[in-house]
Inverse folding.
């Protein structure tokens, strides 16, 4: 019940395309869902986060869609660029983030020039 | 404004040895969490410190211990190192308001190799 399932494991997108990464959770107590971007040899960097009181949040080219009833959330990267090539992790937490983060297994994104 | 800093960057140890990793949180942050990230995997929560006390702990053995200092910096200690302890160790800091915490910001990590 603590797991966060992430798919796909890897993704190849053409420059200018839309990258979509999906996550699913089981624990209905989770109430905070961040997405992190990680480049090789670096720590994860916070991209965008959402709480379940909204169904969508957009920041620049990054959008989180949240489906509370299905217990699923996804990251959409619009106009994908080669510089977006990285590994993306979804995470979930409860008590508005005071609890530990449960991370997905990661999606390796490659954007072709 | 310095972000989360960790030292050392890389470390090579032998099985059975002990290691200490260090973390300085982002300015204004008072909570430090430690994660272990094996190659190709997502980070796994080790423990979290707030007000110099361990507040939460993940599924890691007692060989993993930590400490938080009055200036909010933190150390992660691992005793009796095993080959399986080889990983990237990440420190994340956040600010805890008493009713909720804000985003966790990660440091660059310490790459530990156990031979």
């Amino acid at each position: 019940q603590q797991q966060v399932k992430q798919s796909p494991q890897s993704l190849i997108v053409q420059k200018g395309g839309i990258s979509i990464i999906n996550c699913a959770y089981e624990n209905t107590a989770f109430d905070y869902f961040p997405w992190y971007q990680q480049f090789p040899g670096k720590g994860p960097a916070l991209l965008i986060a959402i709480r379940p009181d909204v169904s969508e949040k957009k920041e620049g080219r990054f959008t989180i869609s949240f489906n509370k009833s299905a217990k699923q959330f996804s990251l959409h990267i619009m106009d994908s660029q080669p510089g977006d090539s990285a590994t993306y992790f979804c995470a979930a937490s409860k008590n508005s983030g005071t609890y530990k983060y449960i991370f997905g297994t990661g999606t390796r994104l490659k954007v072709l020039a | 404004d310095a972000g989360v800093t960790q030292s050392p960057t890389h470390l090579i140890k032998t099985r059975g040895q002990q290691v200490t990793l260090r973390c300085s949180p982002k300015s204004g942050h008072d909570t430090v969490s430690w994660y272990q990230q094996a190659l190709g995997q997502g980070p796994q929560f080790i423990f979290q410190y707030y007000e110099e006390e361990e507040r939460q702990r993940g599924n890691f053995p007692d060989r993993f211990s930590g400490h938080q200092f009055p200036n909010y910096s933190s150390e992660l200690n691992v005793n009796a190192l095993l080959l399986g302890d080889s990983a990237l160790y990440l420190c994340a800091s956040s600010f805890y308001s008493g009713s909720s915490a804000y985003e966790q910001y990660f440091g660059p990590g310490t790459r530990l190799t156990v031979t």
